[in-house]
Amino acid sequence: MTLPDELAEVLGEPPVPEGTWERAAGYVSAAALRRRVPAEELAARVRGLDGVAGVAVEGRGFLRIVLTEPPLDAEPAAIPFQPVWPDFPRTWDNPGFVVRYGHARACAVLRWAGQLGVPGGFEARELSDRHHRAVLRVLAELPGRLVSREPGWEGYLLRLALAYHDAHERAPAVPKGDEEPGAVHAARVRVADVVRKVLPGPDRI
Fold first, then answer.
1. Which UniProt keywords apply (predicted)?
2. pLDDT tens digit sequence for 130-178
3. Which pTM was predicted?
């Protein structure tokens, strides 16, 4: 069970990610208000979870939760939605192209990682660049959207794809030139793998 899963179990609903996550992975939850339970009691249970750096109770019972490291679910739940976007034009003006190209790029990263000997494993602390943090921030919305009455999948997939394109171009997941593959590359490749699973791709790559 991932930490977001544990948070959802304790709170009774997925918490909502907030902020940019550039410096810290944070969530907000109104579960205490909705469930009509003492906020401090719920906060104490959340503080007891491994990976939670702190919990603050604000206002009438809102919880602000900060994690020690940004989470990443290696096996994200499937999105119950199949977008219908035209294949053409294959330009950045076409959301379908942006999303499918993001999927294709993530698949390519996995192939290159194998060829270049990028090690396995995942250490969240290696994802310190703001570009991959932005991808993690969008991925963190997935549990809440899966239980939402209005998940807004088309907009979500486009935002995830755009964030991943930015990370792919500005913080490459595979080593360049004489650079040795290391833990930071392994962490970025893991992000690519998750993005690949979430974004719908072309029929053939």
1. Aminoacyl-tRNA synthetase, ATP-binding, Ligase, Nucleotide-binding
2. 999 999 999 999 999 999 999 999 999 999 999 999 999 999 999 999 9
3. 0.96
| Residue 202 confidence (pLDDT) | 80
Residues 36 and 101 in one domain: no
Q: Which position has the token pair 């053409």?
A: 88
Look up the CATH number of the domain holding residue 158. 1.10.730
In the listed set 49, 67, 85, which residue is the last one of a domain according to the structure? Answer: 67
pLDDT reported for residue 46: 98
Q: Is residue 83 part of a domain?
A: no
Residue 186 domain-assigned? yes
- The reply to whether 127 and 172 lie within a common domain is yes
Range of the domain at 127: 95-198
For 45-73, the pLDDT digits (tens) are: 999 999 999 999 999 999 999 999 999 99
Q: How many domains does the chain have?
A: 2
